[in-house]
């Protein structure tokens, strides 16, 4: 099936089977391999992307369901310089192997965009849907807490 | 971990959706958020030949609150419920129970109708529907029918929905402001399916004794269940430590929970007693 959607601000098209997940479409058809696939059944959170600004699991959505929507992947959240969240993850050593990191960054970006004043409890609650096997989560939570100041005041612009 | 091949359609009316389901001859499935169905497809536990997406069907995402209670359209998402602050007053038990459903990303896609139609024995929404005497509004090729939650759930992942029927709405009866209630569940990781959970509510008579007790449990049977003996033990009693202990003991003895990789039966039995006692204590507020 032919689908069209907005990916990281640009119009894209892809010809996919109906059974193709959004994650596979992003990686295999559109070359956006920053979206990582861990469990492929909605448990690990590694494949989190933004659809119309909301964090969703790209393995639990069909590519055809993204037809006409606005999708943002980790590639769309980073430029030549590190984004505030990326810089904060580096500062706090919030990653080791890095496999889960795109999912954490997209999830945290969605959270802080809508709730820049999220407290530690809220951040831990939201990040509970993302698995990291390296860090023990403490530095990840610290990194997200520290990145909040860059999002404060951005809410209206987003 | 890849689904088998299927066709995909996204009709714009319910009538069209029903007619597509009919054309599937039992091999068609409804999809909306897909948060239960997509894992089933990935594991090939479900191998439909046709998926009918409700995405473009309007008006199914409405939360309507009236004198007769709360009406949730099938496409209402968990995040819609938590962001609708009217529900904290209109149905506090629902509002609290839904905070336990799944994780952030899934809450942005997962729907009320999907959870009810999927009928996982550990899921919160079916448990709330059963405990609250909810009514399911179902559309099929012969028109609309209404079914009580007590008849709707028939087994693990099984309901009375026919292959060409679509659950369009669930109606929770009106909630008196003075009603006492609690929701308690235990899961190893917050947002995961509960090993067991309890939803309870009751009203007080003029002597301060419980009447019309409703106690529902999830994760302890092949579908959500009501704990009738525990309800009987609660009715007519003042809520004190003696009553709480007696009701919890009754609940422990009336259930026959399963043993599985997550917990042995004895653990679940004890857990239900503990959750129920905890809930009854919290209901006094």
Sum up the structure in keywords:
heterodimer, A: 158 residues, alpha+beta, Ubiquitin-like (UB roll), DNA polymerase, domain 1, 2 domains, five-stranded mixed beta sheet, 33% helix, 15% strand, globular, B: 285 residues, Uridine Diphospho-n-acetylenolpyruvylglucosamine Reductase, domain 2, Uridine Diphospho-n-acetylenolpyruvylglucosamine Reductase, domain 3, Enolase-like, domain 1, 3 domains, five-stranded antiparallel beta sheet, 14 strands, 25% strand
What is the topology?
The complex is a heterodimer of chains A (158) and B (285).
Chain A: E1 2-7, E2 10-15, H1 22-29, E3 48-51, E4 54-57, E5 70-72, H2 84-91, H3 101-114, H4 120-127, H5 138-151
Parallel strand pairs in A: 1-5
Antiparallel strand pairs in A: 1-2, 3-4, 3-5
Helix pairs in contact in A: 2-5, 3-5
Chain B: E1 7-9, H1 14-23, E2 28-31, H2 37-42, E3 50-53, E4 63-66, E5 69-73, H3 78-83, H4 87-90, H5 92-98, H6 104-107, H7 112-118, H8 124-131, E6 135-140, E7 143-148, H9 149-152, E8 153-155, E9 158-159, E10 166-173, E11 180-186, E12 196-204, E13 210-218, E14 225-226, H10 228-234, H11 241-254, H12 265-283
Helix pairs in contact in B: 10-11, 11-12
